[in-house]
Each structure stands twice: as C-alpha cells, then as structure tokens.
Amino acid sequence: MVKPERFAHILRVVELSEKIARANGLDMGAAGLAALLHDAARDLPAEELYRLAPPENQAEQNHPLSVHGRAARKLASDWGVGDPEVLEAIEGHVYGVAPQHLIGMVVYVADIAEPGREVNQDIRELALSGKLLEARR
Predict the structure, then answer these.
(1) Which of 6, 25, 52, 56 is buried deepest, with most CB atoms within 10 A?
(2) What is the pLDDT of residues 51-109, one digit of tens each?
(3) Per-residue three-class SS string for the chain
(4) What is the pLDDT of residue 136?
(5) Cβ distance 64 to 50 under 8 Å?
(6) Contact by Cβ (8 Å): 66, 53
C-alpha cells in the first residue's frame, strides 16, 4: 500500500519510536505498532482517503493528505487493532496530540525527527534522553 520510500520512512519511525519509548519508560510495543501503521494510508489516492476518512471541514476537503492519519486509524481498526492509545497515536501523528497522550507524542516526535528527514535533531536528542515532554516545545 505504500511506496518503497515511504516504507523506508516508516521503518525509521518504528525504530526511533521504540528507542524513544524505551528512553521514556513507555510501552515499546504500542509505540512500535502505532509507528508501523501511522502512514499506512499516506500513499492512497484521494478518493480512497476520503472513503476511509470523509473530510470534516473545508481544509480537509481541499487537502486530501490531511486526512491520512484518520484513514490510517480506520485501516488499523479494520485490521484488528483495538488499543485506543495506538489508534489515537496513528490518527494524531498528522496534527499532534495532547501532552498526556505519551504514545501519540512518541510517534509524532519520531515522525518529524526521524534521521532520514535530516531535521529536528535537537528534538530527537531530547526525546531519546528521556525528555519527551520537553521535545514538544
């Protein structure tokens, strides 16, 4: 369902998510699963994205990729993922999650700071040093 470049990104996000979770005393399995599925819908055509996650406002109608987190959540749910924390992390990786949603924060930070992006090294280092909440700033 994803292009090879996207799959490589996903694998980097999984690896970083698991490391961040470990460094912060969080569930590595939940973080890894959410990271694995976070971009499952990212390369789908707009029609399929909208079938899985109908637009809720004009911005989403104008920008199909803005719903890929909700679409990936729907796929994950359809595939049998029932953990609400994992599902929220999958959906929340696009716009972020509340600070108390730690697995969601792990995936969000790993997504924006994975080494292949070559940006946000400072955020990555904070999260890997056990300072996940500080990494959101």
Answers:
(1) 52
(2) 999 999 999 999 999 999 999 999 999 999 999 999 999 999 999 999 899 999 999 99
(3) CCCHHHHHHHHHHHHHHHHHHHHCCCCHHHHHHHHHHCCCCCCCCHHHHHHHCCCCCHHHHHCHHHHHHHHHHHHHHHCCCCCHHHHHHHHHCCCCCCCCCHHHHHHHHHHHHCHHHCCCHHHHHHHHCCCHHHHCC
(4) 74
(5) yes
(6) no
Cβ partners under 8 Å of residue 122, min gap 6: none
| pTM for this prediction | 0.95
* 13-59 pLDDT tens trace: 999 999 999 999 999 999 999 999 999 999 999 999 999 999 999 99
CA quadruple 128, 123, 108, 6: dihedral positive or negative? Answer: negative
Residue 67 φ then ψ, to 5°: -100, 5
CATH no., domain 4-135: 1.10.3210.10
Which two three-digit tokens encode residue 119? 């940006």
- The domain locations on the chain are 4-135
